[in-house]
Amino acid sequence: MSETSIDMAKAGGLPSEDVSQRQAAVGDFIALLKPRVMSLVVFTGFAGLLVAPGSLHPVLAAVAVLCIAVGAGAAGAINMWYDRDIDAVMKRTQGRPIPQGLVAPDDALAFGITLSIFAVMLMGLAVNWAAAALLAIANLFYVFVYTIWLKRRTPQNIVIGGAAGAFPPMIGWAAVTGSVSLESIVLFSLIFMWTPPHFWALSLYRAGDYQKAGIPMLPVVAGAAATKRQMLLYTVLLLPLSILPTLLGTAGYLYGAVAAVMGLGFVGLCLRVLREEGERAPKQMFAYSILYLFVLFALLIVDSANSNWLNW
């Protein structure tokens, strides 16, 4: 392990006597990819690929999903490199590989850049360059716009920066069609509008962590009441938007019905957050938001599978 890693360990990571004998393991580099975040990115990208009109050879489809996964993970690794100072301060992120001294910062940066270039080039050469361009834009947006520019400067960081996490279904769609359409933009918008209430619910009960790290999340800058009102606005706007895939023919009526019911549940839970004090309601809303997005995109996949079976 590098001298930098050992110094970081002495400053608050692993005990130096352990780190001096510790080589970075494969698991440490996998942790840099933010596997939990990557899984949601892959899932929504896979949904976009399946619901897109047309077909893609199964091998190329697998390559496209792999590129989305690797690209997202690469952006996560670069994010961890840049945010290593605040990750060491925040309780939620102190266990990450760089603050713990398990991976040297330079190694994490090189790892992220290499994987990002690999993912984009493989997508372009094996699938198509439209999907590759969208993947490159998503990575650049996450690193330069969100991580470097917005995150430490504005309470609207997650609103604008959330666009990076909304690209995967559009990338999956472009992998099949070679283009961007209204339907894929709607899938993008669905995640884009979902992101602020999702992350603000988390930041409501982690506000102290963000304040300690100097990150101007909305609850830190504007207070809990203003954050809750903003969350309600986004969940209300998300409700009709979530039904659009049915109206556009991208999804069936089952999806539309479930999206409406779950959207009303999302709004209802947000109203509860607005009325109540404490951490319980925001924690429940954060958990529900993950379930909400998973169910909606799972239904898109199910609808697509049923349509393909009927056509066959």
TrEMBL record:
Highest taxon listed in the record's lineage: Bacteria
One GO MF term attached to the UniProt entry: protoheme IX farnesyltransferase activity
Pathway assigned to this chain's UniProt record: Porphyrin-containing compound metabolism; heme O biosynthesis; heme O from protoheme: step 1/1
Entry-linked Gene3D superfamilies: UbiA prenyltransferase
Chain ranges passing through the membrane: 37-54, 60-82, 103-123, 129-150, 157-176, 182-202, 231-248, 254-274, 286-302
Subcellular localization(s) per the UniProt record: Cell membrane
Alphabetical UniProt keywords: Cell membrane, Heme biosynthesis, Membrane, Transferase, Transmembrane, Transmembrane helix
Record field: catalytic activity: heme b + (2E,6E)-farnesyl diphosphate + H2O = Fe(II)-heme o + diphosphate
GO CC field: plasma membrane
Membrane topology reported for the UniProt record: Multi-pass membrane protein
Catalytic activity, EC: 2.5.1.141
Root EC class: transferase
GO terms of biological process kind: heme O biosynthetic process
More about this protein: Carbon 2 of the heme B porphyrin ring is defined according to the Fischer nomenclature.
UniProt function note: Converts heme B (protoheme IX) to heme O by substitution of the vinyl group on carbon 2 of heme B porphyrin ring with a hydroxyethyl farnesyl side group.
Family: Belongs to the UbiA prenyltransferase family. Protoheme IX farnesyltransferase subfamily.
UniProt protein name: Protoheme IX farnesyltransferase
Native source species: Limibacillus halophilus
